[in-house]
Amino acid sequence: MKRYVSSLLLFSALAFNTQAASMVSPASKGNTTEEPSSKSTHQTPAAAPTDSIMLAGVIYDAELNDVLPGVSIAAWKSGRIIAGTTTDMDGRFHLALKDGNCEVRVTYMGFKTAYIDAKKGSQTLLKIMLEPDAKKMDNVVVTGFFNKSKVSFTGSVTQLKGEDLKQVTGVNIISAIAALTPGLEVVVNSAQGSNPNHVPELVMRGMSSFSNEGQSVNQPTIILDGTEISMQELYDLDMNEVESINVLKDAAATALYGSKASNGVIVITRKPIQNSTLHVSYNFLGNVQMPRLNEYHLLSPMQKLEYERMAGLYDAKGAISAQTGLPLQYEYDELYNERYKAIMAGQSSDWLAQPSRNSFSHDHSLRVYGGASNLRYELTGRYANTHGVMKDDLRRRYSIGFKLDYYIKNSIQISNRTNYGEIMTKATPYGSFSTYAQMNPYDRMYNEDGSVNNNLAWDLNNPLHDATLGSYSKTGNKSLSNSTDLRWDINRMFRLTGHFNVTSTEGWSDAFTSPFARRYKNETDLSKRGSLQKGTNRSNSYNGNIVGTFNKLFKDESLISASAGWEVNHSDARSEYLNAIGFYNDAMSFIGNAAGYPTNSSPAGTQSKSADVGAFLSGNYSFRNRYFVDGTWRLTGSSQFGENNRWGNFWSAGAGWNVMNEGFMKEAKDLFDVFKLRGSLGYTGKVSFSPFQAMTMYQYSNRYEYKNGIGAVPLTIGNVNLAWERTMSYNLGLDFSMFERRLNIVLDAYIRNTTDLLLNKSMAPSTGVTSAMGNLGELQNKGIEFQIDGYIFRTKDFNWKLGTTGYINRNKITKINNALKEMNKRNEEMATAYLEPLAQYAEGESVTALKLVRSGGIDPATGREVYIKRNGERTFTYDATDRVLIGDTQPKYTGTINTSVYWKGFTLYALFDFRMGGWIYNTTRATKVEGSNPKYNADERVFDERWKQPGDIAFYKNIADASRPQQTDRFAEKENTLNLGTLNLSYEFNKDICAKLHVRNLRCGINFTDIFRISTVKIERGTDYLYSKGFEINVSTTF
Amino acid sequence: MKVFLTFHGISVVAKNSLLISALALTLTGCNSFLDITPDGQAKRDEMLKTKSGIEDALYGTYAQMRQQSLYGCELSIRGVEVLAQNMTCPGNDDIEMLQNYEYDKTDMRSWAESIWTAMYNNISNANSVLNSDLVRGAREFPYTTYKGEALALRAYMHFDLVRLFTPQYTLNPTADGIPYQTEFSLVTPQFESEQKNYEHILADLLEAERLLKVQPKHQYDVTAFMNDSQSHLNLYAVWGTLARVYLTMGNKEKAAAYADSVITKSPYKLKEKTEVINDVAGILSQKETLFGVYYGDFYSTTSELLQKRTFYQSLDPRSDFMDYYERESLPLDYRTSAYFTQIEAGGQYFYRLSKFTDIYELNNNSGSRPAELILGINLIRIPEMYYILAECLLDSDPAKAKAYYNEVRAHRGLSALDESTDLTQELIDLEFFKEYFGEGQQFFRYKRLNQPISSHDAQSIYPASDKIYVIPIPNSEYANRY
How far is CA A910 from CA A164, A792, B68, B196, in A? Predict the structure, then answer.
């Protein structure tokens, strides 16, 4: 269907010229009633002029051996179309020509162009087989509302195919998209590691908001077949269903989305149903993952004991025991000796291995499709069971889908798709991985009888105790979605499309804490031990749009296209929570067994409702395929804004130049395939705050009950002047391709100025509120991204492709407000509560700037750290105001290198990614080397360069000083990393073998993921959840 | 957009005219589509268009007065009573800081900030009502009542902020005041002098007085909101507040006049000595209370904080409180046993301030509580009016002053003052102390009279000074003024 839709844009334009042809040959319409198979009954025009030529025949899809309707056949003479037609429902065409002195091209979107030799004269029994074009998506840009011709597109877009993604990884679609799109990055979350239940976050072209928590405000908008979906829905999408992905980046590409466009738009198209006999395709993906423990360099038992001794844990300093009256040193010595003996006896506990495991996950996907030219069907199903590398966690996904396409004649298509999906997740009961990295290796994990040892040195809690209880944390989600699409080709120039989707989801969450958990150690009341937190959520949403498009191609190849559309979105979500306590039995977590509710707790819930409506106009004019301009205007109204600012206007304008089609390039034309310059600018917006900050809403609650009535109070004082966050973006681009696409370059440079940034600013309490949303601050992102790829060798059986992408972004705060200064102050006050330095915003600096006090090293006399003040003075007193800019935590340069080698069905693909020049505050060094608590296990560098006695010239302070060091530049490091993200070997069985196996095609492959990583910074990653490495096995077949 | 229009605007509009007209039609319906109100919420503009909406907003404002940082705890039984050294809690750091008036400690700053913030937040709730169209131009009942009560609420809350955060007016009439917030907007109100603060407070109260005198013309205008007027800032409560405010400003004439109005014109009377017991036990005194906040769950606070004895949490009365009540050995002061009980813990007996303990809840038979009782916190009671009159008339008409003084005594089981003994300020102070113990007024009285405060253990004296009487205005108020 996709192929069909995309082709219409061009062919309907071409169709203008077919009228002349159909006068001569009215057959193209009249023949539709005939049986498709009756090829022999071709009408031969009776009265063709003798000097004219008649071309007629049937056009087939070479791969499926099926007829192709809607294929354009055009006769070209000196760069102009002189005649043309399209194939009918049965793939038949007739074309009358004055003479054979022209070039006849057969073009169909997604297929390689074929030529008919008109010089041979009249041919009426042509059978033309069109070969599918591997780069079929190149010709149109899918905007989600309608398709634009790529040739005259002025925006910046990265187009990916489903197969491209699967080559990178079959498991995580989000990281696959990011790996292949320059300018799009997955937010590094070092704590969550490879947690399969952690949904990654994306940032496109730099951060455009101030935020202390997460990057959710910077997320791009994701559109799946015309409907917006969440990051989590994308994460759980079956990759096998994906046909193509268009990542729209600049204003010209995204302006249609208006208020949601600032962070970019990812448009995902699922596979169309081909006109074919019954096909069944099956995909299997097995995934073996192993924990990546090699980033942990912990102390051995003996080293740990020695470290404790050096840190003074066994030095009583002459104290006397209160109980015995003897020097306490005796007890300390005894303790030390006991541990020493145990170590000598071979006691060495591998704590890290306890919560981790090698995991195997599998993912099955089935697709059944087929149908005739006027009715096609598709059935999809998926079962995926994913296990992470920490014990007992899982993410299970089921989904089924059904789709029907119905065609009325050649002008109306109606499709309906229903999808049902279920997700079940379970978190590891083992808790945070970092706890295990703290445990002392000389302690036994289990007693001899197999029970958990709860008698650990220094009174530490054994994390295995809670892990082996019946506690759990599970969530589930069900969603049902139905969409209807309608396309009506009113005539050769006008088309109307409509889309309507209804989605309903229901979810639940259960978190049970066993009554035997350590946290209830001191709870004497048995009816208060153990707790179950239950939550449910429901959401209903619908969206719809109607788009009318107009296309007209002139004889000189000039093209006008225009679209107008209207869109509506509505969503309503609510969640409810309750908490029950008092479980007497570990295994009985049913809520009916609970003793009661916690005191002072009441049911809780959240709800959010929002609606928006929009309309747009968009137009494009291309002059002789050389110069083109386009413009878009978008109007959006949102329920989240007050009546003063309810409607927002957004626009974009762009221009381009197809240098290749210029006269002076005539001689070089054989060399170049594409040579295009383009530029665009535009205003887009985003909404990144909770609803109803702009209006004053009264909240009713039983808390405000007042004798004779129930009271209500305003939630906040609404900021009636709250306006949309807006981004003005400029983009310049170059598309370049030569030597029959052996070398391809895409280059983009951009500036994005975000103004009216929304921020919660502190207010003087006398206003009545302590904080209010305001439009404050301005940000700028500018950057360059490029994509170069090319074939080094290309023959039928062997080719070698090499490519690279790169991305440089500079972020700068251009205007700062007093409110942000307040935020800086608050961050400064809270600094000690956080491991990593909190943001300190300043004009001219990046939002991700790393600012620290400079360190003068460790004073050899005292072992204390010397700080350098702003004026260069050295001092022992730390003052946070002495912080200076060290660098940016965002890398200066990120990129990928990919290569693929094809030989007789075998493909070897490798994808490296690198990040360079980002500054990192090494928390491992600050907490496990220097600021380590000697009662916990530490990094092996804890011995290195610690100050031990006066005169030592050391990098780290006194080994006996266990306090956490102040945040200084001693712990700042520049990070360069290189990662082999993917190494993929696959084999496509040739047709003969497939035929013997009675399958249409068969492909299998193995994909090694994250197998190799080097970094200039030695830091413990995956503190809450481990990182993993491993391989995926993929088998896919169609029969 | 301009580029677009020049090139294709006209052709598009002409050829897609069908679409455009459809578009225009649908867009007109959009504004109502975009008007979304989640359940349990209401848009201010719409809610304050109806009587019941205004009443709900006022209920909300009254209800918010019982927040823990306001009259639900800190400004009634805990914070200000600890500042008055009436209550103590050994080993509780926060209480000790309050007792030592260490206002610059972090915990004290956040304590003061919580009061400041909650009070202004609730002032804005009153302002939201006052700035709605119906209330702003109120001429007729019941809108006059709504406006009168909202104005009185605003004045009442500002007055207590002024009493906490600025120096005593009579001692320092030119002192800096606080911002007087009258708008419902995000514009920060300006600081003004204390004198201006009082002008605003009086203006609001006097206007409230005028409005609350408006009587209903039709019976159907009287809604459930008008019931249980003790739990509203009604006309008599406004008079009582005016008496309190004038006295604080040193205007004894006006203070006496309003106190006299309350006594002569209001239906509230001093209760008999036999009625003293349990009269304010978590309920509004039916005879004496001019204004109190309805609070169905006050027992959960009083039982934890006052009735039970929990280490580091519950409050004990000052060590020598009994000396005040026993200064005259006979006859029996009915308040002593009505206000205090003893409980046994670990073989020791401890005095508890049981004045506010709901006996029905305590005895687990809340079902038998008479329906006419209003659960809540008493904020203005009529004895204060007698004390105000006694104090105001002490110099000008000592005999009359003594009569007012003796009248309260008679209703508390005490004999009248000897004819030969002159009434003194100290005697009124002692009566006030005994009557209002734990009701959050003692600290303000010490401050108004600029008296030294005897520490809770009666071991030392804190001399009167702004250091103990003026709580610094929170930093957040200064830091966020832009």
Answer: 12, 15, 63, 77
Lookup result for tokens 């700068």: A812
- pLDDT at residue A901, as a whole number: 93
Residue B122 has pLDDT above 60, yes or no: yes
Q: How many domains does chain B have?
A: 1
Interface with A, mutate which of B5, B41, B226 (most A CBs under 10 A)? B41
Domain-embedded: residue B62? yes
Residue A15: predicted pLDDT: 37
> Does position A689 have pLDDT exceeding 90, yes or no?
no
Q: What is the CA angle A288-A289-A294, rounded to 5?
A: 150
Average pLDDT over residues B22-48: 69
Beta-carbon neighbour count of residue A131 at 10 Å? 12
Chain A hits for B474, CB-CB cut-off 8 Å, are 765
**Nearby residues of B153 by Cβ (< 8 Å), 6 or more positions away:** B58, B61, B62, B65, B122, B123, B126, B233
pLDDT tier, A643 (very low <50, low <70, confident <90, very high otherwise): low
Residue of A nearest to B30 (CA): A613
CA atoms within 13 A on the CB side of B161: 32
By CA distance, what is A817's nearest residue in B? B482
Answer whether B211's CB lies under 8 Å from B151's CB.
yes
Give the pLDDT of residue A218: 79
For A205-260, write each residue's pLDDT tens digit: 888 777 644 456 678 999 999 899 988 899 999 888 899 999 999 888 888 988 88
Contact list in B for residue A716 (CB cut-off 8 A) is: none
- Residue B261 to chain A, least CA–CA distance (Å): 28
Q: What is the CATH number of the domain that holds B381?
A: 1.25.40.390
Mutate to test the interface with B, among A549, A698, A705, A717 (most CBs of B within 10 A): A698
According to the model, what pLDDT value does residue B34 have? 75
Question: B390 lies in which domain range?
Answer: 44-461
Instruction: Tell me the pLDDT band of A63, cut-offs 50, 70 and 90.
Output: low
User: Is A170:A1034 a contact under the CB 8 Å cutoff?
Assistant: yes
Which amino acid is it at A636? T
For residues A151 and A553, give the distance between their C-alpha atoms in angstroms, rounded to a whole number: 14
pTM (predicted TM-score): 0.79
Kindly list the structural domains of chain A, giving each domain's residue range(s) and its CATH number in brackets, ordered by start.
2-133 (2.60.40.1120), 138-284 (2.170.130.10)
